[in-house]
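G., before I forget:
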Amino acid sequence: MATKKTAKKKPASPKKKKTKTEVPEEVMATVFIMGKAHKVPADATIMGAIEYAGYQLKRGAGCREGFCGACATVYRLPGDYKIYTGLACTTLVEDGMWLSQLPTFPGQKAIYDIDKIEPSVETIQILYPEVFRCVACNTCTKACPQDLEVMDYIQAAMRGDIEMVMDLSFDCICCGLCAIRCPSEIVQYNVGLLAKRLYGKYLSPKSKELEKRIREMKRNKYDKEYQELLKTKKKDLKKIYYERDLE
Amino acid sequence: MYPEYMSESLEKVTQSRNKRFELAKSGKPIYPPMNAEEREDVLNKFHPDYKVESRRKVRIGPNKGESLTTEVTDMLESHSRITSKLFDLTSPDYETDILIIGGGGAGCAAAIIAQQQGVKSIIATKLRLGDANSMMSQGGMQAAVTPQDPPTKHYLDAIGGGHFDNKPELVRALTEDGPDVAKWLEELGVVWDKADDGTLQVLHGGGTSRKRMLSCRDYTGAIILRTLMDEIRNHPEEITILEFMPIIELLLDHKGQCAGGVLYNLETEEYFTVKAKATMIATGGYGRLHIRGFDTTNHYGATGDGLVMAYKAGAKLMYMDSVQYHPTGSVFPEQIAGFLITEKIRGAGGQPLNKDGEIFVFPREPRDVESSAFIRECLERNNGIQTPSGRVGVWLDSPLIEMLHGEGYINKQFPAMHRQFIRYGIDITQEPMLVYPSLHYQNGGIEINEKTETNIPGLFVAGEASGGVHGRNRLMGNSVLDYNVFGRRTGKYASEYATKAKIGTLSLEHVDKYEKELKDARIKTKRVSPILLPYYTPEDVRKRQLTACYEGTLR
C-alpha cells in the first residue's frame, strides 16, 4: 500500500509519529505482556500497548471499540493478589501490569430449534441445566467488562424470568470473562443470548403497524408507485426529492 | 475529563443550551437544511473525495482507465500471494454448495436462508464468525413500517442521499424488502426497541424524511448479528464455519464460472482449496486502508479483500471513487480517536456546535454533506476545538437529549456511548462529545443486480462489498438493512443457482493472467493483496524486524 498506518491521523491535524525514542521516559509504563517486559506509553490502551511493543495481532483484536468481545484480557497489578479483567481495546495500561489475552473460550452452546421451544424455565432447564448450579458468588458480575449484573440475570434465568434476563444481558458482548471465572461452569453469555431470542420472538408485544405493512407489501400495494419512480427522469426525481415534506 | 483550556468553550455550549432547547421543543426548524446548490458547494470544497490527489487511474483489470480512490487503485495494482503452479486443483480439499466468504451480517443471513432450503454452505472467515462492521453498527436499521411512511418515501430518501447515482432496481429491492426484514429478524429473536403496546420505536437519521430508524438500544448490530450467528450455530450439519481461514483468491472453471476459492489458514500458514457450486463475497469494506490518512470506525479486518479477489477474477467494480466519512467520529480522548459516535445521537436531537456553542449546520444532512460542513467549520472558519494531541473537532451536544426526552434517556437508549466516555471521566449526560469525520464506509463495490449476481456466473456479492445500492453516499441505517436484504437474496438466488450449476475443470489461470497484466503495464510494486491484516507496529520496531514482511501478511 502506498499510504501506511504510520499516517493514520487526519491530514488536517498532522501529528508527529510516535516512535520509542521520541517519547520521554516519564510518560512510559512497564507492562508484562504474557510475562515479557515492554516499555509502552503510559496512556495507551492494552491493545495499543501490545501493538506498540511490536505484535501484529491475529487473535485478540476485532472491532477495537468494545462491541465484539475478541480482546478479553486478564491482568494483575503489582502488590495486589487480585485477578482483574478487561477488554484490551478500552482498558488503559498501568505501570507494572502483568497481562494475558483470552482470545477464545470453549463455552458450550446448546443446539435448539427456535421455533420449537418455549420462553419458560423448562427451556433453561433442558438447554442449560448447569445454570442451576449457580452458587451466587457474584464473581461473574465482578468480571464483566461491561459492568452488567451477570449474576442477577443468571438468578432470573433460574426463576424463568426471561424478560429480566433479556434486559440485564442486553449489552453483553460475549467476551467470555464471566464464564472463565465461574466456579459452576455456567456459560452466562449463551444463556443471555437464548433469553434475548426467546423474548424477541415470543414475549415482545407485536407491532400492529408492521403486520399491516407486511400485508400491504404482500398484495403489492406500492407496485404502481415504484413503477412511476423508476420511470422518472433524474432531473424530475431531484425536484421531487428536494420538495418532499419532512416529518 | 476535558482539559482546563476547553472550559471557556464548554461554558458557551452550556450557556446556549436553554435557548436551543426551547427552539427544538417548539418544533420550529433549528437550522435550515441545505438546498441542492449549497450541498454541491460544500462537497466540492471540503469533502476529502473531491481533492485531486484522492483519486488515481487504475491501469489494469475490468475498470482499467477509471479513476478510483488512490488507496484502492494501489490495492488493485498488486501481486497475488500465489500462482496457479502451486496448486493441484483436481482434488479439492473441501466441497460444498455455496462458499460464503466473510462471516459478517450478509454472509450469516445468506447461510441461514440457504440452510432453510436444504443447501449446504461453508462460511470461510478471516477472523472469528461475527468479526465484522455489522457487529459495530449502533444506531439502527431503516425500514418503512409506519402508516405515514410508504416504502417509496424510503426509496426517495435513499436515492437522493446517494446523489441519484444508485442503481434504481437495487434501491427498490432495499426499500421493498425492509418491512419483511424487520419481521424476519424479530421471528429469529431480535429485540427491537418498542412501546408497551408493541409499536416499533422509530427515529430520524441523516437524510430521512420520515422517522423510520428501528433500533436495539445502541447495540443494534450486535443484537442482530449475534442472533444470526446463534441461528447459524444451531445448524452445524448444513453450515460449516472456518475461522481464521480467509479466502485469498477465487477459483474459476474452464467455462468462466466462479467455482470456489483458495483458503489460507492464518495461523498454520497452510493453503487449501474449496470447490463450490456458487460463491458469495461478503467481505465487507475497507476502512483499515486508512484512506487519506483518516482514522476509521471499522473493525480490524476491514481491508477490502473481496474487492481485489473479485477484480482479479474479472468482476466489475462500481463507484470505487466514493468514500464515506462518518460525521461523528470521536476525537477526544486520544485512546478512542476515530471511534464511532452513533448518528442516533443526532436522530434523538443531539446538535453539532462550534467552539462558540453555536449550531452551524442542520444536524441531519446526508453524511457526506454533514461531514463536509464539519470540515469547513474547523478548517476554513477556524471554529473547531483543538485537542491536546493536535486534532480538531466540533462539539456534539448530548445533554440536550436528556432535556428533550427526560432524565435517564441516554442510559436507556445509549448505554454503549455512555460506557465509551465514562471510562475517561466524561459523562455525556452532562457534557458534550468532541467529534470529527472518521472513515466509515465503502460506498461502492462489486457491481451487482437485484439478485446479487455479478458479471461472473456463480459469483454473488452482498453487503458493503457490493456496489450500486447506495450510489455515492449511503444513509444511516441503510447498511444494516442492506446486508439483511441482499444477504437473504444471495441465500435465495445462490441456492437456486447451486442446485442447477455444473462445475467444470477448476482453474487459477486468471491469477497468472493478472500477474502478466501487471507486468505488461510495467507496474513495479512489492504490494501483495488481499492485505488481510493492517499493522500498527511503530517504525523503529519494524526496522529491527529484519526478516518480517507486512505485505499481505506474508511471512
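Residues 1-23 of chain A have pLDDT under 50 and may be disordered. Residues 188-203 of chain A form the longest helix (16 residues).

More on Monday.
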